[in-house]
Design goal:
This protein is of the alpha+beta class and about 325 residues long. Helices cover about 45% and strands about 15% of the residues.
């Protein structure tokens, strides 16, 4: 699990002044920067003339340049398919990625992408989310999976701690970081229940997936009923296609009064774009729980590595609550 430790501890050490200098030197843009939350990178919102226009992304020092190229190709495919996602902004001399040196001799990989309008789904009370919005979350993720259908890239096959088929291994490796004995026992129960997925997941449809439609990466339009943006290809990976739906449904269901209803609405939207096989449909709730169990285990571990970063544990409490409620749902056999 060394790549997880690297993701948190090797985030670039860069301040606003240095980031603004890279933006100015590389893109000839003057702007006001502010730091955005991120697990792996350092991201800065860039306001020009008082309006948010761009995001400057300073990549994790351990990221392979091939992975960044994979993310750029993925963005192009999504935009061509009508998925509302960011566009890469080239430098005046046509580069999509520049390298900048640090006084520490750490080489930084820096990109600029467009800003997307909308408010994060996480900022909208679950009670105020209409079914139409939940179905649109599913539609956007179904369209995303369809846009990636038949496409592959070598960098998509990297070992990655958020990939579904590694999740039980990741949970086992980090469960001891859960300090509360009641929660640790509850997580152990989920590990036992989810173990059959080890045999099932390899038999399901696979492909490139976005893999991180969490409630901070899904933006909602002014109408409150449609998705205006899908952010962050940093977790894109080759995986089980139905997990694209499960990840989105897991975060959309956090703090919901009727989480199963939320999951069903997201699923209906997804299937309007990309119908599921019966075997895929049968594991949706279990995959939702798998994502949540992975999230709480990693949150406990990451908070030890960087206890001052609240973003690393932003979903922890509602994820535990949802796992407790899903425990009452009988798995499909």
């Amino acid at each position: 699990m060394g790549e997880l430790v690297g993701a948190v501890l090797t985030r670039p050490a860069i301040d606003l002044e240095r980031a603004a200098g890279i933006l100015r030197d590389g893109w000839e843009i003057e702007g006001a920067l502010r730091l955005l939350p991120s697990e792996r990178d350092r991201n800065f919102a860039v306001a020009v003339d008082g309006m948010d226009r761009f995001v400057l992304k300073v990549s994790n020092a351990g990221d392979d340049p091939a992975v960044l190229a994979f993310q750029h190709e993925a963005l192009e495919r999504l935009r061509a398919a009508g998925v509302p996602c960011q566009a890469v902004v080239p430098t005046p001399d046509g580069r999509s990625l520049i390298h900048a040196d640090q006084p520490s001799d750490e080489a930084l990989s820096v990109r600029l992408v467009t800003w997307l309008p909308g408010q994060p789904l996480a900022t909208i009370d679950p009670a105020d989310r209409p079914d139409e919005l939940l179905r649109d979350v599913g539609r956007v993720m179904g369209r995303t999976a369809r846009a990636f259908d038949g496409w592959d890239h070598p960098a998509a096959h990297r070992p990655f701690h958020w990939e579904a088929e590694r999740s039980l291994e990741v949970i086992a490796a980090h469960a001891a970081a859960v300090a509360d004995p009641v929660r640790r026992a509850h997580l152990a129960g989920w590990q036992q229940r989810l173990r059959p997925l080890q045999a099932v997941l390899p038999t399901l449809r696979h492909g490139v997936i976005h893999n991180d439609a969490n409630d901070h990466n899904v933006l909602v339009g002014e109408d409150g009923r449609s998705v205006s943006g899908l952010l962050d290809l940093g977790d894109a990976v080759w995986s089980v296609v139905v997990n694209e739906l499960a990840v989105a449904a897991a975060y959309a269901a956090l703090d919901a009064l009727d989480p199963i209803h939320v999951v069903e609405q997201v699923r209906a939207g997804f299937e309007a774009e990309l119908p599921l096989a019966e075997a895929e449909r049968a594991v949706v709730v279990e995959l939702v729980a798998l994502r949540l169990a992975t999230s709480v285990a990693l949150s406990a571990h990451q908070s030890r590595l960087d206890p001052g970063d609240a973003y690393l544990t932003v979903s922890e409490a509602p994820a535990w609550a949802l796992l407790e409620r899903l425990a009452a749902v009988e798995p499909v056999r």
